[in-house]
Design a protein that fits this description.
homodimer, about 650 residues, alpha/beta, TIM Barrel, 2,3-Dihydroxybiphenyl 1,2-Dioxygenase, domain 1, 3 domains, nine-stranded mixed sheet, 26 strands, elongated
Chain lengths: ~650, ~650
């Protein structure tokens, strides 16, 4: 379907907005009245600007408080709307969004509204434009698309159509089923917005917290599937009021907007395909390659210099990682333990080197094992993520990769039976038997990132679109120096789990880490183990500094879960944290102290299908880390 | 009354919190359960820490979901609460806050609740502690203090008392009148919180948006007056859940908390005094000197170097300011126009010099004419603002001053008939006739500041407590690069008007200005005029660059206000903005372009009692400024 976006969705002057929208790949744009009002030139100038950028102006909006008025007021409203029709001619658009009245003195009489909307339709016909009537969720009398459609259908005039907006429907927990029953040609415009579920006034929610499809909690593929079933062939247009987007650079926001619509189309296609195998798409929906059916970490790659390599290697050795290989042509070393692999890259004049120069010791790449690397790259590139290729030495494998929102690389790695593995191709293996068991670590459970608040939703979209991950609801974690927003994303088989963190406040550990990394960075890597008591015993004996847990925690844990005395003692003795889910699944975990005041490691044991990340313990961990920093005098009290 | 604060109100580890609370001058502290849970030591360690800091632990909290349960559950709850009583003994406190149940399966039966709260009271008596029962605004059955008091009164046991919290009462628009009828000795604890009026879920509102008294919109002096009338003599304790405070340095937050209670006591005293002249305060309320009855600007002082002085002087001369004097002993120049006076301070090794080194060209001091400077200083110092004295030359006047939250100075200046004015004392006046009319400017209408978001509420408290200003509700202004929060404060006679601005987003002009100033700074100075058409004509002719207003603005203005064609033409011709209030008061104003990409000037004419600041035009001005910056390439797109 054709993709459009309202100018209110991104930041900047009107000229900057249009340029960013065009560059992102949109075909159309809705002009918001205020953007025109603040613009220095005439509506005709805007028309030329859009045309030069290859953008169709698909709608002008909003027109408010038209219907349900006295005869005298109606005459004034018709005058008012005719001025807008003139302006639309100058602007070169034929569609006007008319919102259901919010006026406190609007008359709640459907017959009157029908009569007056009929006059609007006639005026529109005379002017050669089409009006699109939308039910605002906080309208005075008309709040649902069903009600709006009842009025539009009764007027029965081609110049008065129905406008749909996913927010207005889904924010009221209204069902979109009836949309499919409306004739598509009677739907004049469709706006799409997602939002996190929030328990607040719907107007405030709408004005400040909307986000791009896939970043919030609404079931938008279901909504859009109903739109497709109606036969609607017009644009899908993003209308996003978001305080963060208002302050973010417009090019990146617009690019995310465009890919969010591509992802929505792909998911709508799936929703339609499974529910109605025979349906014909009235307008073709975007059809990317399927996301990887299985994905997992092949290795994590850190950018290091000689000194940082020494410090990380020292930690890895205490965690009983083995030095397992040396890259054939580069200054790159491989460490392994169980199926967990860590690569330390100190190669001069490389991508890793550039990353190290900018970010210091940091996670510069993640290699993901997928079932089809070529398709995975094709899918990622289709969503507009930049493919990357570095230098490849003789006999080394070319590994397809894209850049994540922080500029780090995501490699896609195939491992096919009979073919040499990536490690065999690129490394001189000193540990030729492969990933045999060397200790209690079995692999990587999850990777947690510290992000600038402004890139949080960009990452959600990246992980959802490239890897097809699902997202849990976001939670707020209390760090002693400020709140941290946290959200987990995971693949269907849980082979890939990522946790995103961003500080609400400037003083928390996450914000400090982001500053330390100049933009983004690793929060921690969690290694999985089948025997966490053995793991912490071995690692403590080897000198791994574990984060100390206060005694009061165990008293409280006992009060909450009534644990067997033996288990409680063992947890206390090993500084282990504990969580239990409603099905009895258990999570035992421990943290190391922080390395280079940047990131730390976690050891986790999942029992009985526990599927979370120990969120109830996050505050205890954050407080212990804050004490550690406070003692070390690292608090930035500016 | 004795002042206390809950540990949850400020950031940091428990040790940092207690130190900050003690340093701020509080007598008591409420220990929040989680702070104890995250603490490394024992409750006895906390007791010792507090005692060493001279802090009484006045309450432990919260205890949840006690009443309205089955007999079996009651037995468990009594076990649970006895463990807390033991912990309280270790902690050295005798008061426990018990919140009304929020459990979905709580039984809504007052007789049952009374019976069970009676058992709680008996257990408390055995343990030698006092329980304080509080109605949460979102309680399952008990939501108002009247309902909670009905239960507590029926139990009629000294170890079960009523706890009050201003948020829970005022968030529901409940009236506090009945508090005065409750016997003071039956009120066990009083918590105080303010909040901005918000249309959202009360639990979310309470957990994230509370603020210190005076920073929000609640009528807290009325609430507290009822508490005083009841005869309550215990502490007033701040319990503030605020996302911003969680991320702010604890010392400054605690200091603001303490002064907010002092201000609340002073205002409560006034509320009681006027309503009940004969009332005896059961516990003495803070009694500072009255705020200035009249205040206005004597001068604004800018920190400059030679080059910046030249640039500012050049602007002032185009605005027909006269160079009116030279300081007797310092490199300080005085400019005047009407009653507006600007001082440019380039003195080496002075306060202004230090300010210039840190902030560049900036507003380093404001001199306020008040009716009693000594009393004004005493009042400010009583609220904990730091008095300041600089070097004084021979025959110069010692001018009392305090430091504002950004470190700039606020001088208090007396002008008594017959005494030499400050200008006569300190300056060699080249313009001996004083502030005679030199052009269309009559004085300073208002001063607008650009603040870091974290210091916004500290400024509100500063202006309210030191000058007794009132505050309008905060508004959100759309800058093309992000939202700006704005709030006006003003004195009763409007002699002093200040507008505070802080960016919600990092990319707006306000945030840029704050960055440019390294912390805080002037947004603009608005000069008043009685004839704005004459003013802009003269100033444009003199070469003052006025901000251009788009033609579309005037079309829209016409549509909104139906102005006489002549007025509309005149406005358009002079790039003037226009606003009209509901009483027909009018506001005509114009802006200059930005000086040094930092601040700008405004010219305003108020007609017919207009009392606002042209808020509907702010977006037009912000967009025009954004275009100006965009053209100049100053957008920081990081």
């Amino acid at each position: 379907m054709s993709r459009s976006i309202a100018t209110v969705s991104i930041s900047g002057t009107l000229a900057e907005k249009l340029a960013a929208i065009s560059a992102a790949g949109f075909a159309g744009v809705e002009i918001f009245e205020n953007d025109l009002l603040y613009f220095e030139g005439s509506p005709a100038d805007v028309r030329r600007m859009a045309a030069d950028l290859g953008l169709a102006i698909v709608l002008y909006q909003p027109f408010r408080d038209f219907e349900g008025v006295s005869a005298e007021r109606l005459a004034r409203n018709l005058e008012r709307v005719k001025r807008k029709f003139d302006l639309m001619h100058e602007l070169g658009t034929d569609r006007l969004l008319v919102c259901s009245s919010v006026s406190p003195d609007a008359i709640g009489d459907d017959a009157l509204a029908i009569e007056q909307l009929g006059q609007l339709a006639q005026a529109a016909a005379q002017a050669g434009v089409v009006t699109c009537y939308e039910a605002l969720a906080w309208g005075r009398h008309v709040r649902t698309y069903r009600h709006a459609w009842k009025l539009v259908n009764a007027v029965n005039h081609p110049n008065l159509t129905l406008a749909l907006d996913s927010f207005h429907t889904l924010s009221l927990d209204d069902t979109p089923d009836a949309i499919a029953t409306i004739p598509g040609e009677r739907i004049g415009f469709v706006q799409i917005a997602d939002a996190p579920k929030m328990n607040m006034d719907v107007l405030e929610w709408s004005r400040h917290y909307r986000c791009f499809p896939g970043q919030g909690d609404f079931a938008l593929a279901d909504f859009t599937a109903q739109v497709v079933k109606s036969g609607y062939t017009g644009p899908l247009s993003l209308e996003i009021f978001n305080d963060g987007f208002r302050g973010a650079p417009p090019a990146a926001t617009a690019a995310d907007g465009n890919r969010s619509l591509l992802l929505l189309e792909a998911l709508t296609r799936e929703a339609l395909g499974s529910a109605n195998p025979g349906i014909v798409e009235p307008a073709p929906l975007y059809h990317p390659p399927a996301p990887p059916a299985h994905a997992g970490w092949q290795f994590l790659e850190f950018a290091v210099d000689d000194a940082a390599r020494q410090r990380v290697a020292n930690w890895l050795e205490k965690l009983h990682f083995r030095r397992a290989g040396q890259h054939r042509s580069k200054d790159v070393t491989l460490y392994r333990h169980g199926s967990a692999a860590i690569v330390l890259n100190a190669e001069h004049d490389s991508f890793a080197d550039a990353f190290f120069q900018r970010h210091g010791l940091s996670l510069c790449a993640s290699a993901l094992r997928v079932d089809d690397a070529r398709l995975a790259l094709e899918r990622a590139a289709g969503f507009g993520y930049q493919p990357f290729s570095g230098r490849v030495g003789p006999n080394e494998r070319v590994v397809p990769a894209v850049q994540a929102p922080d500029g780090s690389l995501n490699y896609f790695v195939n491992e096919r039976p009979g073919e040499p593995t990536l490690f065999e191709a690129d490394f001189v293996l000193t540990d030729v038997d492969g990933p045999t068991e060397v200790g209690p670590i079995t692999g990587i459970d999850h990777v947690s990132l510290s992000l600038p608040a402004g890139s949080f939703d960009a990452w959600v979209l990246f992980l959802k679109s490239v890897f097809g991950l699902q997202a849990s609801a976001a939670v707020l974690l209390p760090d002693p120096y400020g709140l941290v927003r946290s959200r987990a994303l995971f693949s269907a088989d849980r082979g890939l789990r990522m946790v995103l963190n961003a500080s609400v406040d400037p003083h928390t550990a996450t914000a400090e880490a982001v500053r330390a990394y100049h933009g983004t960075g690793l929060n921690h890597v969690a290694f999985s183990t089948g025997d966490i008591f053995r793991a912490v015993t071995e690692f403590e004996a080897a000198g791994v500094p574990l984060l100390r847990v206060p005694a009061n925690y165990y008293d409280d844990l006992d009060a909450r879960h009534a644990l067997p005395a033996e288990l409680l003692d063992a947890l206390r003795q090993h500084n282990l944290l504990y969580d239990r889910d409603e099905q009895g699944g258990e999570f035992l975990h421990a943290y190391t102290e922080t390395l280079d005041q940047r990131f730390f490691l976690e050891l986790v044991e999942r029992r009985g299908g526990y599927d979370g990340y120990g969120a109830p313990n996050a505050a205890v961990r954050l407080a212990a880390q804050a004490r550690q920093r406070s003692r070390a005098g690292h608090r930035d009290d500016e």
